């Protein structure tokens, strides 16, 4: 194990160095060191994965009997038993704590929950959890929205039978909890959270708002938890106020402790997020021994405008870090995740020297650049806090210290090697489910658990616990990543279409749909693993960037591209041709008698064949049937579940149509549709047929083929019963490949192509992170000769 880890460490450093050479270093930051992190995997060598994903457990599967599984339920913060086999998570939405069996980390098993209503009041919410021996320590917010009268308690449950054996009043509203290295003390951040709607000195949600927060300390030396007592560490005493004021923290009269972490010698570090500071506490004497401001950042290379354009040309100027999670790197350094809250958030993380409070390293723009490179940058948050790094943990695996930093808005956890505490080295990016916050290393079992706080049952994307293991496994590794140009990653999302280069087997093309404002065709280098996005071509109309919903793409041997553009209504669907520079040179509307019956599910793919005479024939796929009433999607004209494939003769401008029968699932509200069309040869078409389900509910993600040889299509709608419904054959069941990532099974299998050497590729559309986890899965399905 140790030898393998050392080998991976050496390779990771080499890969990081190669990537850094291509990317360049981050810009110098005001008052900080130059950030050495790189934003993409090496273009010259495949990334070395220290962690692979073993399982994704949706916590709605663990709700009590009688609770609707569609009700909101989350896994925010987690803890693990000393044997590393029982995980406990907080579910603030469900007002309960949950238990998972990790005996087999590849197959977590729900062990049920404890409702807080059984312990106190129905409005009680758990905020954090720890485990000491056979006791689960749950901190509970009893405030119920009363900001001026915050309340909370610490409940102690036996892990073995979940019976409460102690309940301790905390005298305020708690946030996080931490256990000292010697297991003799527990520290709890009492935040006494501000009212974000209250205006203070002209600032909504401003400070100060009494009462201020503090820290509670519980000594665990007594044999019985029933004799444990909470003893406060005052942040409002004259001595504490002098310390906070001298440190330059914001609004020192209203400290709001957010996160607590013990150092190797038992010193407690406390983030004061809204105050933009860190406090140091001696829990044995219950005194505030020091504090420092976490300062501000001025740097370039960020996307700061919410405009559906990923453009990292913006800057941060004197922005407070406002740290959330904190962890000790070693006895002299702490690391903070700089999420921001009141007035800041620097979109990265930092390392500080606790002896003087000075930042010795800062991620600069590189954390955000990683989100962009992996296609998970959330443009909806561009004008606010970008990827919002919130959770952070540090642990040693196989002799190597690692930092794990979670992006709340980009749904990733970034792993760094901390062998050099002041020079973190980027190792890899892990995909998680939405809103990863609880970062739980389990070194004794070579595991990492990540719990997520965002649950969207309406979209079928559910809060989960992700489990990762140390090793060389492929599962969960990024399968497609963007290169950087002049130090900035190529921005991409929502790859809804693929097309092969007509000649170069190592190159294919992808296109973004309406998730991005500027319609873009991406060049993808498939000879490397992961596949690399190496260039981006913006589609233009009359010299300006076009804004199209590109759902199909075909690279023409004659030069340029055919685009299948889906409209919000039937009339908006069109076949568009560009030149090699991306300029639109032709737009072909579908026949009116067709578009009059197309609802919001229109064109979803385009392909073409060129005959020996040079005649070009283009094929398109409609996602769903033609309807008598397209607005209501009722009355399928061609029969239940029959959609259409269109054939366009470029020379004559004639359209003919063929039928394709879609299958169905037994899930209420679900439907199947076509998502892509590819010419295998002059007579054979391959298509993607999929349902709209994701996660454990996903049922149909497949590639089928149809034969056109000798079949005569119809023009227009055709007479009743005249439309020929093509016989289809199953070619590839893609669902097993999607599930093999051990992550959230993606809904939108949308791109398919056959490269010049016959290799078959497919890709999922991450929907721009809307109603999705954001992970893009790029698949290598095999040889066309074998599949078709």
TrEMBL record:
Record-annotated Phytase-like domain positions: 491-767
Domain Choice-of-anchor I: 75-294, 344-428
Keywords, sorted A to Z: Signal
Protein name, UniProt field: Esterase-like activity of phytase family protein
Family matches, as Pfam families: choice_anch_I, Phytase-like
PANTHER family assigned to the protein according to its UniProt record, in alphabetical order: MESENCHYME-SPECIFIC CELL SURFACE GLYCOPROTEIN (PTHR46928)
Signal peptide: 1-30
């Amino acid at each position: 194990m140790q030898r393998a880890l050392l080998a991976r460490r050496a390779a990771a450093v080499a890969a990081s160095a190669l990537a850094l050479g291509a990317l360049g270093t981050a810009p110098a930051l005001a008052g900080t060191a130059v950030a050495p992190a790189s934003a993409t995997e090496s273009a010259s060598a495949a990334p070395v994965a220290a962690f692979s994903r073993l399982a994704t457990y949706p916590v709605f599967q663990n709700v009590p009997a009688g609770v609707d599984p569609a009700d909101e339920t989350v896994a925010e913060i987690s803890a693990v038993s000393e044997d590393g086999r029982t995980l406990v998570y907080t579910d603030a939405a469900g007002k309960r704590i949950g238990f998972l069996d990790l005996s087999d980390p590849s197959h977590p098993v729900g062990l049920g929950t404890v409702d807080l209503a059984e312990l106190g009041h129905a409005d009680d919410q758990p905020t954090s959890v720890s485990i000491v021996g056979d006791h689960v320590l749950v901190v509970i917010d009893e405030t119920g929205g009363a900001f001026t009268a915050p309340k909370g308690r610490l409940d102690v449950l036996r892990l073995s039978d979940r019976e409460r054996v102690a309940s301790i009043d905390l005298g305020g509203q708690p946030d996080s909890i931490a256990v000292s290295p010697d297991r003799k003390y527990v520290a709890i951040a009492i935040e006494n959270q501000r009212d974000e709607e209250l205006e203070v000195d002209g600032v909504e949600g401003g400070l100060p708002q009494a009462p201020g927060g503090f820290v509670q300390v519980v000594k665990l030396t007594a044999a019985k938890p029933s004799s444990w007592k909470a003893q406060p560490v005052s942040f409002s005493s004259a001595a504490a106020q002098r310390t906070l004021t001298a440190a330059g923290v914001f609004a020192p009269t209203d400290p709001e402790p957010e996160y607590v972490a013990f150092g190797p010698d038992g010193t407690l570090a406390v983030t004061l997020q809204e105050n933009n500071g860190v406090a140091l506490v001696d829990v044995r004497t219950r005194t505030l021994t020091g504090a420092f401001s976490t300062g501000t950042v001025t740097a370039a290379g960020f996307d700061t405008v919410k405009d559906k354009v990923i453009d990292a040309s913006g800057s941060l100027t004197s922005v407070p870090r406002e740290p959330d999670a904190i962890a000790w790197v070693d006895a002299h350094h702490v690391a903070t995740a700089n999420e921001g809250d009141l007035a800041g958030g620097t979109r990265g993380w930092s390392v500080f020297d606790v002896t003087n409070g000075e930042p010795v390293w800062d991620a600069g723009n590189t954390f955000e650049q990683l989100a962009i490179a992996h296609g998970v940058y959330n443009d909806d948050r561009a004008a606010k806090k970008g990827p919002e790094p919130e959770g952070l943990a540090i642990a040693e695996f196989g002799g190597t210290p690692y930092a794990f930093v979670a992006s709340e808005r980009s749904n990733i956890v970034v792993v760094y090697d901390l062998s050099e505490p002041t020079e973190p080295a980027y190792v890899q990016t892990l995909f998680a489910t939405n809103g990863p916050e609880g970062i739980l290393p389990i070194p004794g079992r070579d595991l990492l658990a990540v719990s997520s706080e965002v649950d969207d049952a309406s979209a079928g994307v559910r809060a989960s616990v992700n489990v990762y293991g140390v090793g060389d496994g492929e599962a969960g590794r990024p399968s497609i990543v963007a290169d950087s140009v002049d130090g900035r990653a190529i921005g991409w999302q929502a790859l809804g279409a693929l097309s092969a280069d007509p000649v170069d087997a190592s190159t294919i093309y992808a296109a973004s749909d309406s998730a991005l404002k500027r319609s873009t065709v991406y060049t993808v280098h498939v000879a490397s693993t992961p596949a690399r996005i190496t260039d981006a071509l913006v589609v233009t109309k009359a010299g300006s960037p076009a804004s199209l919903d590109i759902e199909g793409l075909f690279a023409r041997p004659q030069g340029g591209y055919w685009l299948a553009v889906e409209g919000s209504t039937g009339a908006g669907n069109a076949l568009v041709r560009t030149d090699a520079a991306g300029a639109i040179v032709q737009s072909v509307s579908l026949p009116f008698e067709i578009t009059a019956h197309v609802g919001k599910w229109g064109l979803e793919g385009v392909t073409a064949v060129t005959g020996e005479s040079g005649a070009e024939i283009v094929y398109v796929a409609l996602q769903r049937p033609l309807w008598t009433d397209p607005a209501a999607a009722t009355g399928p004209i061609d029969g239940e579940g029959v959609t259409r494939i269109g054939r366009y003769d470029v020379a004559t401008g004639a359209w003919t149509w063929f039928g394709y029968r879609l299958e169905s699932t037994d899930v209420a509200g679900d439907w199947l549709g076509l998502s892509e069309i590819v010419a295998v040869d002059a007579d054979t078409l391959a298509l993607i047929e999929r349902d709209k389900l994701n996660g454990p509910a996903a049922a149909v993600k497949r590639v089928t083929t149809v034969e056109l040889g000798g079949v005569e299509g119809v023009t227009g709608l055709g007479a009743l019963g005249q439309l020929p419904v093509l016989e289809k054959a199953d070619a590839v069941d893609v669902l097993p490949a999607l599930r093999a990532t051990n992550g959230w099974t993606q809904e939108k299998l949308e791109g398919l192509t056959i490269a010049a050497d016959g290799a078959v590729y497919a890709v999922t559309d991450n929907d721009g992170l809307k109603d999705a986890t954001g992970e893009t899965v790029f698949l290598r399905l095999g040889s066309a000769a074998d599949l078709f």
